[in-house]
Amino acid sequence: MFCYQCQETAGNKGCTVKGVCGKTADVANLQDMLVWQTKGLAILANKLRAKGEQISKQVNHMVSKNLFITITNANFDDEAIVREIYKTMDMKKELLSKLSDEEKQGLKDVVFYDERDAAKLLEKATKIGILSIADENIRSLKELITYGLKGMAAYVKHANNLRKDDEEVDAFIQDTLEQLLDENKTLDELVALTLKTGEFGVKGMALLDGANTSAYGHPEITKVNIGVGKNPGILISGHDLFDMKMLLEQTQGTGVDVYTHSEMLPANYYPELKKYPNFVGNYGGAWYAQKDDFENFNGVILMTTNCIVPPKDSYKDRMYTTGAAGYPGCKHIEGEPGEHKDFSELIEHAKKCPAPKEIETGYIVGGFAHNQVFALADKVVEAVKTGAIKKFVVMGGCDGRQKGRSYYTEFAEALPKDAVILTAGCAKYRYNKLNLGDIGGIPRVLDAGQCNDSYSLAVIALKLKEVFELDDINKLPIVFNIAWYEQKAVIVLLALLYLGVKNIHLGPTLPGFLSPAVANVLVENFGIAGIGTVEDDMKLFFE
Ligand code: FSO
Ligand code: SF4
């Protein structure tokens, strides 16, 4: 195996024996195979599109789901991944049958590859992975684009679950997957494709924003309880609001409460979700804290997406997965995009569990997505004009296990009192319980929501640019100090680059998949930089 797609990759170079995330070599290789087969499917879909044929939603959804499955910490289940590979091979056959023999001429091997023997499949999987691209700079850019596509696909899939599709985005993903197989691509072409990926990242996030808000209303300022009730509960994690809604509906009147964990926290901000009386609040911290949080929770856990940490035996039998998520030995709740899912087994299971152990009390405040911030726009603009707010600091992105991430807590604490943090994603768990206060009623931590709600932060920045009549987003009093972990953060980064944001600081380490030359391109053209010490960075940003 070779995998360097996330921030915790071994030695910041690559996992080669087993993933730091817990992924086995077989799972890593099968994920490479799934991506490769998805490229084969994409080639066929592109060919049919070019002939003017409509590509079915089933194909588009399969491409997104396959990519999503390969995101860090989403799916550790080798058998489930093999099933998806076979489904993809079946789908390729179906599309191939629509082409004449002449049209099949010259198509790449990946289109025809079909192997149902598991051992042979695994053997082949070791040959088509990342290291099969010899040139380290080409490999670096192709992987940067691949990770952007994976992040985009995850967001698109959530939108698909809410019955929202954007054929243009699906076509882009599939066309780009095919381009990634092109051995003649130059570095310049790949840099251009990277920015194009960012452009479609914005579209993908906008699609999900529209899907979430049209289904559940606009996030609004909300005080989220972080204590516990007396009933047994289900703890739901991940990003899928459609799963959340179904779970809330099905738990009504059952005596089972619902709590969010990690990236599901922003579900508390949506009017159509927070209205349920048994939706108690949020339990625990960021994804990597799940070993303690899930044990303490006592009840049933539902993982709707990443980030899964290999579960302890003490709660493994209470952990369920659904959608793109999977873990061997954990029950998987089936359901195609937009389909009703039956959570009755979880509810019955939860009824037999003790209530959650109280690990903290109080509340956290969030719900500052674009609509809510626009409602406060006069106040915010006034605060900027009077100098009460001198700077916005975008500290969105991810949290993670690395010790060095304490930097973000210390950085938030050290910020001048006239600075406001804009955030989205699970990075906020490093400072969202610090009580950083407010500026004239505007909280100093404005949480827009999940990592995909970074879209909101971009919309807010563009609005401020308009209000202050600036010709360049970089003239705003905003600095970007972003933390990353997995591939959704990659598409957020590419989206910001596409929007013209310069001088983004990225930590706790720069991606291991950036070759020195590619890192240099990002430094020279976009001013991308790493992080320093809190003291040095305070001087850099505020003096
Ligand atoms: Fe991932 Fe980052 Fe959204 Fe977190 S991008 S790690 S769980 O912020 O959230 O999926
Ligand atoms: Fe390693 Fe990250 Fe890949 Fe897991 S996802 S194998 S930790 S690089």
Provide a descriptive summary of the structure in words.
The chain has 543 residues and is α/β, with parallel strands linked by helices. It folds into three domains: 10-215, Substrate Binding Domain Of Dnak, Chain:A, Domain 2 (Up-down Bundle), CATH 1.20.1270.20; 222-351, Rossmann fold; 370-542, Rossmann fold. It has 21 helices and 15 strands. The strands form four sheets. It has a six-stranded parallel β-sheet with strand order 4-3-2-5-6-7, sandwiched between helices. The protein has a five-stranded parallel β-sheet with strand order 13-10-9-14-15, covered by helices on one side. Strands 1-8 form a two-stranded antiparallel ribbon. Helix 10 links the parallel strand 2 and strand 3 (257-261). The radius of gyration is 23 Å and the shape is globular. The termini are far apart. Iron/sulfur/oxygen hybrid cluster binds next to helix 19.
Give Rg in angstroms: 23 Å
> Reading side by side through the largest sheet, how are the strands ordered?
4-3-2-5-6-7
Described by the principal axes of the CA atoms, the overall outline is globular
Strand content: 5-15%
Tell me roughly what share of residues is in helical segments. 40-55%
Q: Which ions and ligands are bound to the chains?
A: iron/sulfur/oxygen hybrid cluster, iron/sulfur cluster
Uncertain segments: none
Q: Which structural class do you get from the secondary structure elements?
A: alpha/beta
